[in-house]
């Protein structure tokens, strides 16, 4: 009796022994099953699994994402087709037949909402059409915003190639700390945050003829703020064209927001995707991913695999595990190319995911959410979705922001599944149960504006002269408490006065393209005469968490190398130490290699540092060095981060103001030290609320740098004499 596929919501048939049935039988039986026609399930599995018995995961087919193309459809593109001229590829995109109609609609309406399936050519084609149509005459520019840096870079590179120009000439991109544009650049792909900053220098966007807010459905904080600002600019610049492009979600809301702007629909090309769920929840989704990828590889017909994970660390771990197992399996399996893609991946590595898979091999792309809608990778037939993403969350009551791995929304899960049906009928394997999908996933993702701190944005809006934030035209307003807290924080940082007006210091803070606390720290380095060191700390903090690497086979060496950088005082000084030694080595890559330091991260830190240094003059901070007096560096950091402080109590660390329980991250140089007072750069919620990048401080400094915020009384320590030396587990105990 072959495996039975389940329709969503039905009970399992429960035949005895069914649990033991191997995954590939269930799946293959199920896979050949058309919706509503179960007889096909009696087919024998055609593929042999070469993995060990226990390394399988059982999936059941449950639903199908309906496509508009026949399930059989054309086969995946062959090598020959992929080599077709780039212009032929352009003409084959779903948006192409609508070129004239679209241009006419743009000509006739100031604001147009454009809805189209991911991969239909919105991002790469529409700006080119506008360019061809003459929208960039008289030196006018076209902006196209992307929520993610990687997308801006890779899309610009693609478009430059399609237009046969050098990247940075007619087509360029601009992301924070990296500007690949020139005087000649008329098509500017940029992050939404960068366009937001453009308002500071050009409040009416006068040099732009078209602004395309792309990936609008992502609803990032910056995109949401752009909506309000652009709507306003459009009112007094009738010749400005505004395009809001989105995947097939939420377009009616955008239309309503922009005074009932028309919606232009690009019909998609979508093949059906069979969706499979696991029978039981998976305890370790990373391990489950690796096993499932190999299962797909050995049992499924050709077609590339796309895996969704939540971030760089996880992706690197998964890739390493996959490569490891492939090596062990050796010639027992066909070649499997394992390619990561995440925000900090260097661009040459990013480009690799778009290269065609060599014949006989299979490609597996292990990606963050970026591959959900921003990037389209040709040839994907299988999607593996553990159902998680990394999300910021914010508690306006405590002012604590944290990054958490959370279940993705249903909308997100369906976007992910859809990625499998672009070139042919595909399959999506969800590493959770059908029950979990129905009962545990939210319908849609909450817009970022409702789950993040707003300090940055409020400072920017204030610098743009927008004072009444409560009545700003938000698509979805942020929680009132969050706005209030942002104002309070900016007041505490000295960026706003008691009337809520921007101060001189606030104006300077807005000039620096970093968070208010970081800008404050940089400004404070003037007072403590240590701007050289603070610039380094700031640069190192912005490449965050990817400084050290720890190869599996050299864990001991790597850990020793890291510990060798430790300096008393804490992690910020460790970062400073790493950078200083690297600079002394002549910025050597060999030095990085020997010290288990990531060369690319360091190179990026150097770029960031140079850019920040270039801005110092604008904010009237002179270059100075502390000459080894690290107390000054620590005080300057405290001047920016006095909001993020914790003290050691009898029951572990508590944040000073809100009395929240927090823990030092095991990777911190202070993990065993457990100083009484400390500040942290950020909180990350994994198994606990971990403070990342912590610095030992003295409570008296808080009174020195923020007398308006702290009272001497709340910094008293009643148990100071009797504090146990160590609280919490040591690194060894944690394993
Ligand atoms: O924006 P939308 O999702 O509608 O589509 P797009 O990003 O403009 O992608 C159109 C086509 O360009 C897809 O077939 C992509 O595979 C291709 N593309 C590419 O080959 N390399 C890139 N860096 C970006 C897009
Ligand atoms: Mg796009």
TrEMBL record:
<protein>
    <recommendedName>
        <fullName>Pre-mRNA-splicing factor ATP-dependent RNA helicase DHX16</fullName>
        <ecNumber>3.6.4.13</ecNumber>
    </recommendedName>
</protein>
<dbReference type="GO" id="GO:0005654">
    <property type="term" value="C:nucleoplasm"/>
</dbReference>
<keyword id="KW-0963">Cytoplasm</keyword>
<comment type="similarity">
    <text>Belongs to the DEAD box helicase family. DEAH subfamily. DDX16/PRP8 sub-subfamily.</text>
</comment>
<dbReference type="GO" id="GO:0003724">
    <property type="term" value="F:RNA helicase activity"/>
</dbReference>
<dbReference type="GO" id="GO:0000398">
    <property type="term" value="P:mRNA splicing, via spliceosome"/>
</dbReference>
<keyword id="KW-0507">mRNA processing</keyword>
<keyword id="KW-0539">Nucleus</keyword>
<feature type="region of interest" description="Disordered">
    <location>
        <begin position="65"/>
        <end position="86"/>
    </location>
</feature>
<dbReference type="GO" id="GO:0140374">
    <property type="term" value="P:antiviral innate immune response"/>
</dbReference>
<keyword id="KW-0547">Nucleotide-binding</keyword>
<dbReference type="GO" id="GO:0060090">
    <property type="term" value="F:molecular adaptor activity"/>
</dbReference>
<dbReference type="GO" id="GO:0038187">
    <property type="term" value="F:pattern recognition receptor activity"/>
</dbReference>
<feature type="domain" description="Helicase ATP-binding">
    <location>
        <begin position="103"/>
        <end position="267"/>
    </location>
</feature>
<keyword id="KW-0597">Phosphoprotein</keyword>
<keyword id="KW-0347">Helicase</keyword>
<dbReference type="GO" id="GO:0005737">
    <property type="term" value="C:cytoplasm"/>
</dbReference>
<keyword id="KW-0391">Immunity</keyword>
<comment type="subunit">
    <text>Component of pre-catalytic spliceosome complexes. Component of the minor spliceosome, which splices U12-type introns. Interacts with GPKOW. Interacts with TRIM6. Interacts with RIGI.</text>
</comment>
<keyword id="KW-0399">Innate immunity</keyword>
<dbReference type="GO" id="GO:0043130">
    <property type="term" value="F:ubiquitin binding"/>
</dbReference>
<comment type="function">
    <text>Required for pre-mRNA splicing as a component of the spliceosome. Contributes to pre-mRNA splicing after spliceosome formation and prior to the first transesterification reaction. As a component of the minor spliceosome, involved in the splicing of U12-type introns in pre-mRNAs. Also plays a role in innate antiviral response by acting as a pattern recognition receptor sensing splicing signals in viral RNA.</text>
</comment>
<feature type="domain" description="Helicase C-terminal">
    <location>
        <begin position="292"/>
        <end position="465"/>
    </location>
</feature>
<keyword id="KW-0378">Hydrolase</keyword>
<dbReference type="GO" id="GO:0071013">
    <property type="term" value="C:catalytic step 2 spliceosome"/>
</dbReference>
<dbReference type="GO" id="GO:0071005">
    <property type="term" value="C:U2-type precatalytic spliceosome"/>
</dbReference>
<keyword id="KW-0508">mRNA splicing</keyword>
<dbReference type="GO" id="GO:0016787">
    <property type="term" value="F:hydrolase activity"/>
</dbReference>
<keyword id="KW-0067">ATP-binding</keyword>
<keyword id="KW-0747">Spliceosome</keyword>
<dbReference type="GO" id="GO:0003723">
    <property type="term" value="F:RNA binding"/>
</dbReference>
<dbReference type="GO" id="GO:0005524">
    <property type="term" value="F:ATP binding"/>
</dbReference>
